Amino acid sequence: MTRKFLVLSLLLSAFLLNFSVATFAAGAETEEGKEDPTGFIMHHIKDSHEWHFFNVGHTHITLPLPVITYSSDRGLEFYKSTDFQNPETHKFGKEYAHNGIYIDEHEHLGRVDGGSIMDFSLTKNVAMMLIVIALVLFMVLSAANHYKKNGAVAPKGAASIIEPIVVFVRDEIAEKAIGPKYMKFVPYLLTLFFFIWIGNLLGLLPGAANVTGNIAVTFTLAMLTFIIVNVNGNQDYW
Question: Are the beta carbons of 218 and 210 closer than 8 angstroms?
Fold first, then answer.
């Protein structure tokens, strides 16, 4: 299994390297044409109410995402992102308002009448985060089932990937940095490690979302760590 994993990693690395070279070449051509690629790059990195994959000619290959809104006078409402955009250019704007609601060019929801509205939409980063969580659960639960059925034997399948990471985080990070009571915090550290690791790997794929590059995600992880550290800190820490 380890050999297969290494071969798969090498193939994935070669694919990403080839994609990077092609992107660099396209960037060079753009520079010669005196076009600024910043807007194009930021459009694909930032969060969005739709998931754009690529273009085929003038056709946008995208995945519409649900737009969920709440207001005190209208209650909870459900739409899809295509209700608020130009069907040809896929651009959002106040001129494409639907049922009195619009998404502006900065991906912010608003009401034509100026009333307050809350946005609970499933955006691209949220959808990607759910995919990351599903993959982490699949890997961890597969490894747990392996040990539950076979006991303390040589790891196979997902367990052969999970075990070295668990041992590394437990022995090289938690024990050395925290001290005797490190086992209390190992589950949290492993959760962070796998979430960030899988999120970063998927973020390298063309068409994927940039979850860990979103300040809201990193801020939330930082605040969780801040709270855990300060709540569990002893008198020497304070």
Answer: no
